[in-house]
């Protein structure tokens, strides 16, 4: 499976993704699921992918080729005027790629080749934007009420984000929050795995402000993982005690 | 959907279930998912059900009839000598009920009528036991390493149980833990809903030690729900801070 989260803060965007892909439990690999393109000083566009790896790699390849071969650049991510149009373009590529594979495989492959994408970025003169793109090619944008998107194995790590997220939080706190959310997910689903990719994009920087690959033996992640259990238990014990008497 | 949890403690068994059933989001009802039978001083048997309501109600009806009509009692829950045999009997009923409905509906109904059951109880002279019964009629038993079972919408509420569970905990603490787990689940999935049913069965009591229906306006549940957010945020802030400098 996969776990990716994208967040909008007042200060900018924070993205985190795992790197495990699996076909069954006996065939696992490490693949980067976060891909970023920049035009220094003008735009930064990053996408995270979940779903069928052949589909998402094909989408990335098509995007990458466009950034590389000048004669194909007219619809490239680096030239589209708005993030909305970037989302439209990626959605179209995603839907077409899935449809092509489905058709080639007939009913046999129905539903097997789907994928979802989180798109984040900013183009000069406009706000940082965050989108969730569906296999059907359509998409939604993050809003004040729903300021983050998750794809893949979203459930285990969701309650802490719902409780801990604050639009005004620092990048450091957002990173800590994501590490806790990923820790809960890693503990519960074997098909989400280390290393993790982290990227912070400060508003109006049009470049990655901070990037890190969080490896298996990362001392900070290990500390969070070890101490979150104790912190949760303390939080739990700080709640009022239940009493059999009062409620019977 | 549904959320039910059964736990084995040193002191006995703790069960909690929600009561929401839905067919789509515009057709919701309240149904009790926890059913208990006792022979005072000799045995207590409780089951919680998730899945197709017609299937689980049919299983319960068949079980209830057996406890009521003397001529059918030879395989009844109240006369089987061990919890293992009770699990076998319920598993058989569950599988047969699902199969009958599937067959009557042909391929159209495939997979639509499944259900799962958590079985908990104790018979005099034996240990309290906890089982998870699958739609196929087979089952697993809780062990020292896996001392609780969840059915239905299990993911949102799982991390806190994994972190908070302790075999030696009091019934009061276990109840508090389940309330936190249910609160996270209720917040995330509309198809899990109040009121909740709670039952505590002390070892060798062969009767419910404590039963409660936790209603919408339950002051204790409201306090847990309101304060858990703050407690989680405090726990989160007690963790070491991430620093961009140290890791780049």
Blueprint (SSEs and pairs):
2 copies of one chain form a homodimer.
Chain A: E1 3-8, E2 12-17, E3 20-22, E4 28-30, E5 34-39, E6 43-51, H1 53-68, H2 83-105, E7 115-123, E8 129-133, E9 139-141, E10 148-152, H3 158-164, H4 171-188, E11 196-202, E12 210-214, H5 219-238, H6 244-247
Antiparallel strand pairs in A: 1-2, 1-10, 2-11, 3-4, 5-6, 6-7, 7-8, 8-9, 11-12
Protein name (chains A, B): Proteasome-type protease
Pfam family, one (chains A, B): Proteasome
Organism (chains A, B): Aurantiacibacter sediminis
Q: What order do the strands of the largest sheet of chain A run in, or round the barrel if closed?
A: 10-1-2-11-12
The total count of helices of chain A amounts to 6
- Span between termini of chain A: 45 Å
Show unreliable segments of chain A: none
User: Number of folding domains of chain A?
Assistant: 1
GO molecular function (chains A, B): peptidase activity
Pfam families (chains A, B): Proteasome
GO cellular component, one term (chains A, B): proteasome complex
Keywords (chains A, B): Hydrolase, Protease, Proteasome
In words, what does this structure look like?
- Two copies of one chain form a homodimer.
- Chain A has a single domain (3-236), classed as 4-Layer Sandwich (Glutamine Phosphoribosylpyrophosphate, subunit 1, domain 1).
- In chain A, a hairpin with a 7-residue loop joins strand 11 (196-202) and strand 12.
- With 248 residues, chain A is α+β, with helices and mostly antiparallel strands.
- The first copy, chain A, has helices at residues 53-68, 83-105, 158-164, 171-188, 219-238, 244-247, and strands at residues 3-8, 12-17, 20-22, 28-30, 34-39, 43-51, 115-123, 129-133, 139-141, 148-152, 196-202, 210-214.
- Chains A, B: Keywords: Hydrolase, Protease, Proteasome.
- Chains A, B: GO terms for molecular function: peptidase activity.
- Chains A, B: Pfam families: Proteasome (PF00227).
- Chains A, B: This is Proteasome-type protease.
- Chains A, B: It comes from Aurantiacibacter sediminis.
